[in-house]
Amino acid sequence: MSRPTAALAGGAPAQRPGRALKNVWLAVLILFLLLPWLGIGRYPLHLIIIALIWSYIYTSWAIMGRLGMVSFGHGAFMGIGAYSVVLLWNLHGITPWLGALTGIALSLLVALVIGYACFRFRIIGHYFALVTLALSEVVRLVIIALRDYTGGSLGITPKPGLVDGATISLYAMQFSDRTVWFYIALAVWLLGLVLWKLADDHPSRRALQAISEDEDAAASIGIPVARTKLGITLLSAGMTAFGGVLYAQYQFYVNPDTVSGIAISLQMLIGNEHHGVDMTVYGALLILFIIFMPKGILGTILQRRD
């Protein structure tokens, strides 16, 4: 029986599964867009905003992680972004929009230095993870050491930019209405997904997969290993820094333990689905390193070269 005949006999032809799935996702998106107007309350809306911001940050990390580049240093990039925007605003009155660009630029510089050194000298695998873990902790300690400017371990609050009963200050990037923050966080999260998709579809993705399996083989067929890995690292670091900016402006308070350090990097890696899991994994890793690498990273590398 032909398709037209089948349609006449049994009604309209069945909708394609792919198209039906797209319609479902479109309906979900429309419902999500209407959430602030459905009377869900301020606190549930706050939780959704926080979830969207962290989802964007996790997506930023995943651009590297899913391609075999396990980084524990993204807490550094988030901290740099968060503190750059707050300090420039508090100390010099520079709008957070420029502060965000500064924070992203500083993160890219740090990622460039660390990434180039690691990829140039082929520090890969768990050695790369340990180097980036140290980076995350160094940034946290620097923030604490500069307590006269950063507030140290007590943290710092951006100066209010809302005056005379205003609810929105574009110059200060401050919005008292959580509905505004909801749409900002949603837009940034969707942008993160688009960038993730573009990176996933980019020709360099296959190159990175080849590199993750065997760098020597990838280099032998002409793949620029260091440059390819560095490019995806810079993209991931810049996105994470902007996540720090968004977090600082929304929460209106930052401290070293909430935007930087090892704990934040592990939270990105694990997702922190269960409280305490990230630090438990960190403790277990430390024990393993003490048992199997008692001479430290450099000592173990030198020992294996001898």
Could you please describe the fold and organization of this structure?
The longest helix is centred in the C-terminal third of the chain and has 27 residues, at 225-251. This protein starts with a helix and ends with a helix. The chain has two domains: 37-156 and 167-272, no CATH class; 275-306, no CATH class. 74% of the residues lie in helices and 1% in strands. The chain is globular, with a radius of gyration of 23 Å. Strands 1-2 form a two-stranded antiparallel sheet. It has 306 residues and is mainly α.
Q: Nutshell version of this structure?
A:
The protein has helices at residues 3-10, 17-33, 42-65, 74-92, 96-120, 125-145, 147-150, 178-201, 203-213, 215-220, 225-251, 256-259, 262-270, 277-292, 296-305, and strands spanning 168-169, 174-175.
Task: Name the structural class.
Answer: mainly alpha
Count of DSSP helices?
15
Mean pLDDT score: 81
Q: What's the order of the H and E elements?
A: HHHHHHHEEHHHHHHHH
Shape: globular
Number of strands: 2
> What does the main sheet amount to?
2 strands, antiparallel
Low-confidence spans: 1-12, 272-276
Radius of gyration: 23 Å
Residue share in helix: over 70%
User: Major sheet: order of its strands?
Assistant: 1-2
- Give the tally of structural domains: 2
Distance between the termini: 76 Å
